[in-house]
Amino acid sequence: RKRAVVFISGGGSNMMALVQAAKAADYPAEIVGVISDKADAGGLAKAAAEGIPTFAFVRKDYASKDAHEAAILAALDKLSPDVICLAGYMRLLSGTFIQRHEGRIINIHPSLLPLFPGLHTHQRAIDAGMRIAGCTVHFVTEGMDEGPVIGQAAVPVLSGDTADTLAGRVLIIEHQLYPQALRLFAEGKVKMEGGKAVGATASDANPKS
Ligand code: GAR
Question: Taking each helix axis from N to C terminus, what angle separates 42-49 and 13-21, rounded to the nearest 10 degrees?
């Protein structure tokens, strides 16, 4: 099984979806560690309760972004991950960091990229008058939320939706999409080559309705 380390900043519901998926005997990845940039991230306790090693690296404990990332990279060296899954990790990784783990960092973002990268994505989708919304799992490259797409899933935007109600609807499909995308990657069915996702077609990662 491939070794996956999950990065979180918050509640960790996507991280837990990966943990639950990895309990299946035929799942091709195991979660070998959870790293947070927040000491009080709710997901840390959930991971610890599953017996998963957890690590918090709080940015203000380090003099610079470089020093912060160096500490995380050192922890990663010990965990020797085959794949790093960003799951609500709200900090941009540097080019140096990404190059050290080139092609093996994936992220989930709660919009249909390339629409609405960055923050406040649900409110922006509503303000734009979108009638569908969704989520994307993609390879991480230096640009924020820009890397090649592995899979996507969509939900309707309903009249009366607020950013919160839409976020809740999208989160449900995030929990389906992420384990499927990690499965594809861990099985070697999709990889990043020449800045593109190659192998399994994107739809192979999409939850079937
Ligand atoms: C998820 O909706 C995830 O897609 C989003 O944060 C939430 C984390 O929830 N990520 C981003 O916005 C990254 N830019 P979780 O901690 O319960 O998984």
Answer: 20
Q: Which ipTM did the prediction report?
A: 0.98
Per-residue pLDDT reduced to its tens digit, 7-60: 999 999 999 999 999 999 999 999 999 999 999 999 999 999 999 999 999 999
Residue in the structure block whose two tokens are 């972004």: 65
Element (H, E) at 9: none
Record the pTM: 0.96
* Total residue count of the chain as it appears in this document: 209
Residue 30: C-alpha distances to residues 44, 82, 174 (Å): 17, 10, 19
* 209 known ligand binder: no
108, 137 Cβ separation under 8 angstroms: yes
Ligand 1 atom, smallest distance to 171 CA: 2
